[in-house]
Amino acid sequence: MTSRMETLAANLTAGLGDRVFRVTGLPDEVTILVDAVHYREVAMELRGNCSLGFEQLMDLAGVDYSTYGEGAYDGPRFAAVLHLLSISNNWRLRLRVFAPDDDMPILPSVVDVWSSANWYEREAFDLFGIVFADHPDLRRILTDYGFIGNPFRKDFPVTGYVEMRYDPQERRVIYQPVTIEPREITPRIIGEPRYGGLKS
């Protein structure tokens, strides 16, 4: 007897053909890896093909693979990972697409395929620096307008580059270089003479 996930994997292979690099699956989920060149047409096929029927994009997230596998990974650095839901067929799919250029990661936008991708793509742009070509309003969504850098990239410093504070003399918020002093934290150990019934 064929499971639903096996049926989905077979439908994906039949509907998408060689536009998919790899179809992998666990008992409850299927993941496909798509080349950036075919990303938009695959997205439209996933939504429009009745045997697939992924009407809803549940999530889209950027990923930085630069430290993946503790340095053993040797592939493209930035990816977008989409989680799709087919309400009509009652199954889910994970779609992964890598940006071909690590220095300027660009992927096509899928806002016109799934409108819920709008803010998710803005978030991936803001936090990872992934540019989504033809996005209708690609601008920062979580960091402020003067923010420099992409805070979810693995090479972004934990402390950031600048800090913000209110200056009472100037009566406004100002930015300045980070002033966090490095410090050594020594754990404080409290000994209890009769802990656990033991005598010291």
Question: Gist?
Answer:
With 200 residues, the protein is of the alpha/beta class. It has a single domain (4-143), classed as Beta Polymerase, domain 2. It is built from three helices and nine strands.
Structure, described:
This protein is an alpha/beta fold and 200 residues long. It has a single domain (4-143), classed as NADH:ubiquinone oxidoreductase Nqo5 subunit (Beta Polymerase, domain 2). Helices cover 18% and strands 28% of the residues. The chain has 3 helices and 9 strands, in the order αββαββββαβββ. The strands form 3 sheets. The protein has a 5-stranded mixed sheet. A two-stranded parallel ribbon has the order 6-7. Strands 8-9 form a two-stranded antiparallel ribbon. The longest helix is centred in the first third of the chain and has 13 residues, at 4-16. The chain is extended. The model has no long low-confidence stretch (mean pLDDT 87).
CATH fourth-tier homologous superfamily: NADH:ubiquinone oxidoreductase Nqo5 subunit
Radius of gyration over all CA atoms, rounded: 23 Å
Largest sheet: 5 strands, mixed
Count of helical regions:
3
How much helix, percentage-wise, in residues? 10-25%
> Could you give the distance between the termini?
67 Å
Specify the CATH architecture. Answer: 2-Layer Sandwich
